[in-house]
Amino acid sequence: MKVGPLRPSVNLSKKADSKRWGWLLETEPMIRTGQVIALIILCTLEVGDVFAQTEQLKFRHLNISNGLSHHEITTIFKDSRGFIWIGTAFFGLNRFDGNTVKSFLHDAHDSTSLINNSIRQIFETPDRQIGVLTPLGVTLFNPESERFERDLDSFYEKYGTSKHLKNIIHDRDGAFWFIESHRVTRCIPSEGKSIVFKNNAGDTTSILQDSISDFSIGKNSNRWIVHSNGIAERLEEVRGRGQVKQRIYDVYNFNKGHQTGYRLLADTDGDIWFLAAGSYQGVFYYDLKGEKLHQVTANSPSLRLNTDAASCFVEADDGSIWIGTDHGGINIIDKKQSTVRYIYHRPDDPMTVAENSIICFHKDDEGIIWTGTYKRGVSYYHKNIYRFDVYKRHSLDASSLPFEDINRFAEDEHGNLWIGTNGGGLLYFDRQTGQYKQYLNEPKNEKSLSGNVIVSLCIDSEKNLWIGTYNEGLNKFDGKIFTRYKHVPGDTSSLPSQNVWEVFEDSRGRLWIGTLNDGLALLDRRTDKFQRIKTWGPNAMQSMTIDAITEDRQGNIWFGTANGIDVLSPDAKNFTHFEASSNPYSLSSNGIVDIRQDSNGRIWVATMDGLNLFDESVKGFRVYKENLPHRAVLTIQEDNLGRIWIGTLNGLCEMTLLNDDATDVAFKRYVESDGLQGLQFNLNASLKTKRGELVFGGPTGFNIFSAEKSGEDLPVPRVIFSDLRLYQ
């Protein structure tokens, strides 16, 4: 049914004139649930495959362990002072100041306490008191005295409202909308005027005589109400009078006027969403431009919810519509992309939504979406609430990371990642689709990966992927087959060792192979022969174990070993050796793990006892130890802002250089609560992508983040100063 010009209001409490109103009440065939296919998801949501992506959003949580008085959350509201108010089903009201939770409960012996412990709605009055709706009516909380007032006659008189008050909405224009079951009052305290929208007998521009169940403000500040029978009305002030400018009868028609507690959401595109909790009808939305009603259910031909048991909804800052469900988690509808994304609780992932039964949402002024659950308190989300995107294995999600102990990374020309694991073979991570492909050793297939413990990766200039393994030699992968290189005892032109610890291609196209305990070699890719590099003695390598290789701007090749650093000159004629000693400019440790050159040409060295920076002026190193979260530095990267990121055995550390010569620095430590895969990171398990993102891996997954995001002030709940105590 189309929504045309304003139609006269219908007094649905009386018998309608069948000749005049038959199109609405009798003569037009009602659309039944089984007949809705033709009208579901037409025009604006034409799609192909719309099934959800598997990546889960990351939430933080508030529950009884944080001080909440009860786990079943019925309503959430953020006031103008910045407090988050949380209403529970049976055990009172809670106030969260960003740090602690304070509870307010009914006390039968205290008339200034909460009137009832069952909270239905929370709002703020024009004079900044907190209104709390309970089964026994509204009570007002005075933030100054922290007492509740039950006698509200003077308040009702002041604002032209009554004991039927259900909610107050403060709009962007400074007006307060007092929502009652039978009327809506628009109040502008600064101007001292009010406009009332109510049913007036004989006035077809007044609201219908039916119980108002919800109110919403949408595109162009359009104000909408929905009645318990499903009829929606757009309210407008006309020459100082409140009028109805448009009505939508389609949901009323669909449900034959059945009285229920409809919820309403007017989105920023101008569409109107309807939901009747407990009706098992999914959600409806009315396309105002196309004048069509759409229903989104678990059986829709295109967009599909994972359950029809929708309970609440909210619009996120990106325009997506979040649908809370009973036992289906959160369904996120993206109308522009024509997709539905399913957000579930995963028992093995504490960052997912606390549970799959959602009761209420509240989006605050900073874009944080607060989610009230049935049995596990509050979960809250913002895209920047965690500083680091994390990728882990989840036993109940087959599309998650196949193996979580990560050793190495390499990036291909498409920006996708090759990931070497510590026992799970080789992974290819398609960042566009979020899908993984796993390559494992096949014992009877010589063209498969030779081993499943990957300790080094390198993509060469010919786009071949070189894979060093633990105890299973070297592999070259051309995208189709794996070519194996093995150590052959007695053959000095073969791979020196089955343990290939590092593979590196320099600017001249030479492929360097570093091994565990068997020295350094160069691979001639024309002949597939290995040339072993001299170890020990003058002008030679000084260790048989090579953990890191890099090239500086001058063409020097730096080799990090188990016995310090050896630097090969650009003409390949001379080695310079650095090791730990009593010299104040020596390395802090001979155990070299990683070597990186930064954007200013400085050489940073990760060791098992601190971070080292090469100082050309003294031909030695400056050492950083004292403020690191752990002295074992396992991997390092520089971000696009010039900060050095350090993976350790005790968290990730951000090092900011406060002056040009790096003599003054500041450290900041990040831990699991910031979104890290874990506190421990793995040796040399990091990468800087072509986009400038940093990737760090550890025993329980990996993180990807950008310099810009990690430096943001995250819009998490700010701490509100609410109390002062002096202790002597």
Q: What are the salient characteristics of this protein?
A:
single chain, 56 strands, disordered N terminus, 728 residues, elongated, four-stranded antiparallel β-sheet, mainly beta
Descriptive report:
This protein has four helices and 56 strands. It is mostly beta strands and 728 residues long. The longest helix is centred in the first third of the chain and has 8 residues, at 18-25.
Query: Gap between N and C termini, in Å?
Result: 73 Å
Structural class category? mainly beta
The proportion of strand residues reads: 35-45%
The total beta strand count reads: 56
* Bulk shape: elongated
Give the strand line-up of the largest sheet.
1-28-27-26
Radius of gyration of CA atoms, rounded to a whole number: 33 Å
Q: Specify the helix fraction band.
A: under 10%
Low-confidence stretches: 1-53
Quick one: biggest sheet?
A: 4 strands, antiparallel
Residue-averaged pLDDT, rounded? 89
Task: Specify the number of helices.
Answer: 4
Topology:
Layout: H1 18-25, E1 60-62, E2 73-78, E3 84-88, E4 93-96, E5 101-104, E6 121-124, E7 130-134, E8 137-142, E9 147-149, H2 153-159, E10 165-170, E11 176-180, E12 183-188, E13 193-198, E14 212-217, E15 223-227, E16 232-238, E17 241-248, H3 250-254, E18 262-266, E19 272-276, E20 283-287, E21 292-296, E22 310-315, E23 321-325, E24 330-334, E25 339-343, E26 358-363, E27 369-373, E28 378-381, E29 389-391, E30 406-411, E31 417-421, E32 426-430, E33 435-439, E34 454-459, E35 465-469, E36 474-477, E37 482-485, E38 500-505, E39 511-515, E40 520-524, E41 529-532, E42 546-551, E43 557-561, E44 564-568, E45 575-578, E46 592-597, E47 603-607, E48 610-615, E49 620-624, E50 633-638, E51 644-648, E52 651-657, E53 665-670, E54 686-688, E55 694-698, E56 701-705, H4 707-710
Antiparallel strand pairs: 1-28, 2-3, 3-4, 4-5, 6-7, 7-8, 8-9, 10-11, 11-12, 12-13, 14-15, 15-16, 16-17, 18-19, 19-20, 20-21, 22-23, 23-24, 24-25, 26-27, 27-28, 29-56, 30-31, 31-32, 32-33, 34-35, 35-36, 36-37, 38-39, 39-40, 40-41, 42-43, 43-44, 44-45, 46-47, 47-48, 48-49, 50-51, 51-52, 52-53, ...
